[in-house]
Design a protein that fits this description.
The chain has 302 residues and is an alpha/beta fold. The protein has six helices and 14 strands. A seven-stranded mixed β-sheet has the order 1-2-3-4-5-6-7, with helices on one face. A five-stranded mixed β-sheet has the order 8-9-10-11-12, with no helix packed on it.
Length: 302
């Protein structure tokens, strides 16, 4: 029986309008809806007076203007980036034409990993002004953010923990409307499963009360949600192993079975996540591979 993930696919918002989500958190959503962005990129404004931003979004001047209007008469002091995809970080350059705030992120795209030059959605232009280490804290007058390294969706993915409200800005590591795309080589299912383990440990230790993903609505009950995400990934592993057992040894053979519920137009992205799952099973020594490239590789149970 398939894992039931309690997705939330409907919430109220208006493009360009700032919404108050909590005493310290506001949000403006960019008008860049799509298959990977849902309703669009949510840029978070933290604090008041002297404020921080999380994920300025795409290089969209209308969205930047909406952020500037939402923070009129305030000072933007910090710009945090969860990871370097084109729906998250390119807005930094436009924002810095209007503010002296520095950008903070884990690294440039790829985090030193050799990545595909043709990778879709990679922002290779962004270089953070300040590199953040896992666990590093940034303090201001009325807010404190801790950087939490959460790779998997991207090699340089950070989440940010707002200490005053026990809230985690989880970027694309956890999304309330969909599972997370994990696309090798920048993405890694091995890393992603470790990230889910880490998030579960935090939740079981009662560290996080609410999640704010960059796309979609807040996740107000994150523990059962992340537990469901974790079980879903294990279910995908079992589906792959079952395919191999009945003679489906290639990605193309497995794809219509493992993703039978998916519109075929999404198969290219699903194929990347399927590859990530297979690579995770190889790392766990539950599969072996023959062949030199992903198109022709065959997978077997050792």
């Amino acid at each position: 029986m398939a894992v039931d993930i309690p997705f939330q696919k409907h919430f109220d918002f208006e493009y360009g309008k700032v919404d108050r989500l909590s005493p310290l958190v506001r949000r403006v959503i960019a008008n860049n809806p799509g298959s990977f962005t849902f309703t669009g990129t949510g840029t978070y404004i933290i604090g008041s007076g002297k404020v921080a931003l999380i994920d300025p979004g795409p290089a969209d001047q209308k969205h930047i203007d909406a952020i500037l209007a939402a923070t009129k008469d305030e000072e933007i002091t910090h710009i945090f980036v969860t990871h370097t995809h084109t729906d998250h970080s390119p807005g930094c350059a436009l924002l810095q034409q209007h503010t002296a705030a520095k950008t903070y992120a884990y690294s440039k795209h790829g985090s030193g990993r050799e990545v595909d030059d043709a990778e879709f959605g990679a922002d290779r232009e962004f270089t953070p002004d300040v590199l953040l280490a896992d666990g590093e804290d940034i303090h201001a007058e009325d807010w404190s953010l801790s950087a939490i390294f959460t790779p998997g969706h991207a090699a340089n993915h950070l989440s940010f923990y707002l200490q005053q409200e026990r809230a985690l800005f989880c970027g694309d590591a956890v999304m309330g409307w969909s599972t997370t795309i994990v696309s090798p080589p920048d993405g890694s299912m091995v890393d992603y499963m470790k990230t889910l383990d880490r998030l579960l440990a935090r939740l079981l230790n009662a560290e996080d009360d609410i999640y704010y993903p960059t796309h979609g609505a807040p996740i107000t009950s994150p523990l059962p949600y992340v537990q469901a995400l974790y079980q879903h990934r294990l279910e995908r592993e079992h589906q792959v192993l079952d395919c191999v057992k009945v003679g489906r040894h290639t990605l193309e053979d497995m794809l219509p079975v493992v993703y039978s519920e998916l519109d075929p137009s999404m198969y290219p992205a699903a194929r990347r996540s399927l590859l990530a799952t297979v690579e995770c099973l190889i790392a766990k020594q539950q599969l072996t591979a023959t062949g030199s490239d992903n198109a022709n590789r065959a997978f077997h149970i050792p």
